[in-house]
Specification:
Elements lengths: L17 H4 L6 H13 L11 H39 L7
């Protein structure tokens, strides 16, 4: 979304960005200023960011896996309900005269 309007996105590698970890006072404002200073000095360690096509493919795969999970849950629920109904019919107490 941000890239679509022509802005550049930088993803900082948190483990390598020691400037923030070494701060005694940690607030969003201070951290943002430190990150901006590192970026201006071209010292901001960047993390890998997959290309848009790869991210879209991964999102589609996550969605597919979620749909498969829902399908499996529904199948299990149907089988459970059928088993329950079958047990109720089979083991229904009968009055013997």
């Amino acid at each position: 979304m941000v890239e679509e309007i022509g802005l550049t996105v930088k993803l900082a590698h948190t483990a390598k960005t020691k400037a923030i970890a070494e701060e005694k006072i940690k607030t969003d404002k201070i951290s943002a200023n430190v990150l901006a200073d590192l970026l201006r000095a071209n010292m901001l360690p960047e993390a890998y960011r997959a290309p848009r096509e790869t991210r879209d493919a991964r999102a589609m795969m996550r969605y597919r896996l979620r749909l498969i999970s829902i399908r499996t849950n529904l199948k299990n629920k149907i089988h459970s309900t059928i088993d329950y109904i079958y047990e109720q019919l089979l083991w229904k107490p009968r009055i013997l005269l």
